[in-house]
Amino acid sequence: MTATVSTPETTAEVAPGFRRPSQRRRGPWAVAAWVVLMLAVPLLVSSDQWMGVGIFALIAAVGVLGIQIVMGLAGQVSIATAAFMPIGAYTAAWLGVDHGQPFWVWLPASAVVAGIGGALFAPIAVRMRGHYLGVATLGLVFIASYVWEVWTDLTGGSGGRVAAPVVINGQDLLDGYWSGDTQVLTLFQAWWYFAFAVLLVAMVVTWNIKRSRLGRAFMAVRDKDLAAGVVGIPVTRTKTTAFAISSAFAGVSGSLLAAYMGYVTPAQWSLTLSIDFIAMAVIGGAGTIAGALLGALFYKAMPEAVNWLSTYVPFVSQDAKVDGGLTAPLLSQMLFGAAILLVLLFEPRGLNALVRRPFHWARTRRERSAR
């Protein structure tokens, strides 16, 4: 009897998760090229409007990474992003404004306090599954909304309060960055670099979690929590950790959003915000790191793109106050809803898979031609 040996060069199927040596070598170079491109964006884009869109997307992507962890990796349904983002925002305001602490104090503190909030809620959440868990997190959003309205000493009530500033070398980034009388960076350039730096750290943390023993435990619980418990994975503790980490990311995103806007009110943290973040995660690609940024960019850029294109479409009005007819904001909402449906039906892996597909196709053709 003879044995047939299958070599990597002749094997048609590749084991899931396997990366060829050439792929592993290209990975760091691709990331480095992306970082260089992101650093060059403020120098290449002159429109303040589109720079503002990009900054909002960078800030939102931090919160979407948290959703990728709790929903994409751990498989837990959570609609509580709008409950934990304000925890970070008000923690930052309390430390940064009321006590004069710098951003390197209030930014990590916003993650810690929001993470503790998620860990305290987790023992209730882990008792539920599926849509029951989603409804429980939904209730948390409504409870949090009431708390922010009545806790006026901290939040300023419905009138809001000033947010914590990002001050570097004695300069508030909302005023740009100056060297003497010369402006080195505009407001948008300074905030782009700051938000990108925070996002980069969040991406590195997420990447390490995904590759760690904890990340494998998340995925085991997601796929089958009963089986995970049988093989010795502490299911309750794993779910609690996922909620805590996701909440910490939401807290950082909330503190950054408030600092960039310069003001924070309870009305900002509505249920719609949570749904928007889930939509960003779905469109970008559930459980993927790059998908968090792609989904956030798509969500933030679509209204501006539709508003610009509406000037060339006669039956679309740019005035949102027009009664009847199709306006640019309504068209944007319709297209965003259609995009969610199309992604769910035809590409559940999201924009991340669509972006990767041409590169995968080109690499496959090169490898076949080299044989």
From TrEMBL:
Residues 1-10 have a biased composition (Polar residues). It comes from the Bacteria. It is found in: Cell membrane. It is a multi-pass membrane protein. Keywords: Cell membrane, Membrane, Transmembrane, Transmembrane helix. Residues 1-23 are annotated as: Disordered. One of its GO terms (cellular component) is plasma membrane. Its main location: membrane. GO terms for molecular function: branched-chain amino acid transmembrane transporter activity. The chain crosses the membrane at residues 27-45, 51-70, 77-97, 103-125, 132-151, 190-209, 242-265, 277-299. This is Branched-chain amino acid ABC transporter permease. It comes from Nocardioides agri.
